[in-house]
Amino acid sequence: MRFDSLTIEKYGVYSELKLPLHDNPGLVVIYGPNEAGKSTCLSAISDFLFGIDHNSRYGQIFGYPQMRLEATLRLSNGQQLILRRRKGTRKTLTDVDGKIVEDAVLASILGPTTRDRFEALFGLGHQALRDGGDRLLQSDGDIGRLIVEAGGGLRALVATMDALGVEADKLFSLRKSADRAFYRAKDAFDAADRVSKAGIKTREAYDLARKQVTAAEQEYSQRKAEQKGLSERMSREQRAERVVPSLVALDRLNEKLETFGDLPALRPDFAAAVQQALSSRGAVRDTLEESEERRADLERQTAALVVPTELIKAEAEIRDIVQKSVHVEKERKDRPNRIAELAGQEAQLTTLRESIGLTPDADLAPLLPKKNTLENLQQLASRGIELRPRIGDLTEQIETDADSLKSLGQRQAKQMEAGFDKPFGIAASDLNLLPRLVEDLKTRTATYQRVRDEVDSRLRAIAFPTLEMLRGWRCPDAAAIQTELERRVVFDKELAKHVETVSVQTARRASALAQIGRLQAGGEVPTAAAIAVARGGRQSTWAPIRSTYLDEIADAAAQLPIVERMEAVSLFETRTVEADQLADRKSVEAQRITDLAVAEKESIEATAAIHSTTAAIQETQAKAEGLSRKLAETWPDAIARAADLAQLKALVTERSEILKRAEEAERFFEEAERLRVDHDPRMELLVLGEERLKVQPGPTASLLARIQIVTREIEVHDEAHANSLLSG
Fold first, then answer.
1. Residue 405: enclosing H or E segment and its boundaries?
2. For residue 398, what are the domain limits?
3. Residue 677: which residues within 8 A CB-CB, separation 6 or more?
4. Of all residues in the chain, what percent are helix, strand and coil, respectively (each to 5)?
5. Which of 4, 389, 526, 668 could be joined to 586 by an S-S link, Cβ 3.0–4.6 Å?
6. Structural domain tally of the chain?
7. Euclidean distance between CA atoms 498 and 504, whole angstroms
8. How confident is the model over 485-501, as a mean pLDDT?
């Protein structure tokens, strides 16, 4: 058995080390400076053959779980064996595919060789040589001393060694002592080593910390970008907040200015007239305020006026008395007429007397009302005369109140005509959020459209008509494809290794055949087989001669022609000489024979290796084809669209990213729809408010200007409605 190659992974200081060992016969020398890793490689060979120690010092850097040793072995029959060893307690030996291989496979090759025997024969290191020398010198001047002295008669060296022994005892002893320099240095080294180990981070901890730092840096950059974007947006909104009122006022002024476009130019004294009108307006305003205050005082006086209960109850009688007093006054003024009327009435009374059967001069007094009735009537008349001034004041107050009521009625009619008697029906607060809703809706809609366009573009790039077809496409995930790719890489490496082996063995066989041809070109090679063939020819020639010589017929030989007998003897002698010469040349051409045997062996071994490797190639190809068929049978749609696994992985990765972006687009669409549910009713309220207020926004009017105009008019209407309710 020999090693063709050795691969070390996560072992000692090596993350990965490959040692190709040439398969040509001869000695392979591995050399390097101190601490280059020669002893590590020697220990790796021992650990590969017999297992990695439980407390191996070669796993301190990368950790025990990652330690791997792989070797390619060439057996005596030419068979190639590739095995891997991991650290563990059992079943640590596998093949290249990861299948468990029993330790008996190596044990049958190693035979009775143990780890100790192997290290004693093939694993001698510097420390082992020193330990052996120390054990020789343990004889204290007997065998060891004699060996040293016999080596060159160096008695002075023995004395020097004794002195060095005394000095070494001062430096070191087997029992720990503070007096020994070694232990003092070791204590200092251990302290420094503890400090060093305390500051050492494992690769896993370093990678984790590095990932955390990278993630933190990415998150910081993202937050920085978001902060910058928010700051810019806030700055724009603050500028807009400062400028919008001025812009709205400017829009209103422009709108008013447009309404004055068809008016003629102002007269020259317009400014003076305006000043005079403003002064007059101030005076009128003062008068109006005084009138309002007087009206308020009168209303308060009217409200404070208390009418006696008896007067309220006698309102009807008072009204009658007032009316009667008015009539009496009128009758006094019309007395002449009344006298004439009395005369007429007297005539009528005469007629009445006649009609009731009385004489023309009959007294009608008995027929008049009773005295108390007349007294009551007189009292009432007197009371009416007393109340006449009060009645006059009340009459004037009633007329004033009637005028006020008439004015209020007119104002209320105007408010009803303007619609101020009813609430507007639209709250200004419902329109305040509309600008932000419009902006958010535009942003969400634009984002949705942009992401959707990106999804459609990427769908076209991978030849999928619709997103539903992409969702329904059956395919393995990227991790499974990556596993298959790695498996194929292993197969490719194995095939490449087998092909390289076939190439090397083919060259080896060709070289051996060429060597055989060169050796055979110098004549028949006196090999044992050639000598046996020559001796066989000699024997076959001697057999008829012998039989003739020993024939019972005495003259049997004489019966043969002399020429024939001479040819037979000559042939026998020639073959005898050839056989003897071959036997003699065998000792002379021993090197040539050896070279020929070696070349033939090389040819045979190379041919066997070619056959075994070719079978391994066919087996590996069959495995790869079987896996490819299985993958195609499991995922026919995926393989039909992308037979190359690298392209399939890229397509599957692109599919995952497209589906993720599609989910984002759907989320943006849902957000836009939620905003639209709140936006559309408010927009309809704005249009309805403009229609009810008869506001015609200009074609260039902004949404904010429209909202401010409608909001202002709604506030005016609500204030007027509140005043209408108070006045009502």
1. helix 388-418
2. 284-418
3. none
4. 75, 5, 20
5. 526
6. 4
7. 10
8. 89
